[in-house]
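Format notes (please read before filing issues)

Several people have asked whether sequences and structure tokens are stored in separate files. They are not. Every record keeps both together, in the order shown below: the sequence lines, then the token lines. Line labels are part of the format and must not be stripped during preprocessing.
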Amino acid sequence: MTDEIIKDEVLENETAEETKKEFPENGDTIEGKVINIQGTSIYVDLSPFGTGVIFGKEYLIARDIIRTASIGDTITGKIVELENEDGYIELSLREAKQAIAWSEAAGAIKNKTVLEVLVKDANKGGLIIEWQGVMGFLPASQMTKENYPKVEDGDKDKIIDELRKFIGSKMNVTILSADPKEGKLIFTESIDGKVGTVSDRNIPDKYSVGDIFDCEITGIVDFGVFLKLEEGVEGLAHISELDWSLVDNPRALYQVGDKVKAKIIDIQGGKISLSIKALKEDPWTAAESKYKAGDTVNGVVIKHNKFGALVSIEEGVAGLVHISEFDSEQELRDSLELGKSYDFKINLFEPKERKLTLVYKTKPE
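Then the structure lines:
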């Protein structure tokens, strides 16, 4: 075998390996050139991986984008099926557009980019915003003092009436948080290119860490609740500061307008951070004298995650049964069902660090 043949075979193998390694998967965004438009189908050259197709429902959803497409144009699609029954790679332009939007959202958060957005609708909590084809939310508590709905008696119907006045108008905002998996996009209103929420302006010098206030909940988002300390001054109680127990959804605990006591735990960068749970007795303190490693306890399964099952042995005190105890995630879920109670042995208990690990006591050998 000559050196040239050996070299050719090596290059061929390297190219094949590289193509295999880089072959796209479902959910990937991919770019290609339009090679044919026929009826309600558009075909895209995705060399070296094959030919992509946008058809049926995806074609109809993306018809506004496709209407301006011509053969030879480069378009970006998201793979929804690697190989359909006809051998094509099925693409979605709508999902690709949203994937790009979420990527841009992450950059906008990092750079604190000011965006001009259209207000599409309103509810009692704030404004529904459209940006890059993605629907987001601007909580009323994240509106500027000038735009914040001024309703003296706090009447919810009047608040909605005030918020509806913004429908159809454009506003300058920045993105506060973005969660593509949950489809959650939260905005905050901007002033002169800087984030300018009610909570980060005009904070009186009298406020300090440790102060306790009677507050009103003015907004609820996935990551916590906004609290009004006094007119024009607000802070955020993060989801981790709402209760000693696990909180998945702040809306399950509170409603806008609820009155609560909260403690200032941080003032930084003009922002006030609050804690509601800091004013409640820490259950781990009482648990310190009740439990020790080796004890058998009864607990309720409250959550499954990739690490195992989270088990509550009493209100506010929970520990993990690690997935390594089981042959698979499905076995764990079948053995430890959500909402059901089982006997466990305490493997590790460090209450000062709030660490608790458990072993499923009745798991068969």
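For reference, the curators noted about this record: The two ends are 58 Å apart (CA to CA). The first helix runs from residue 3 to 22.
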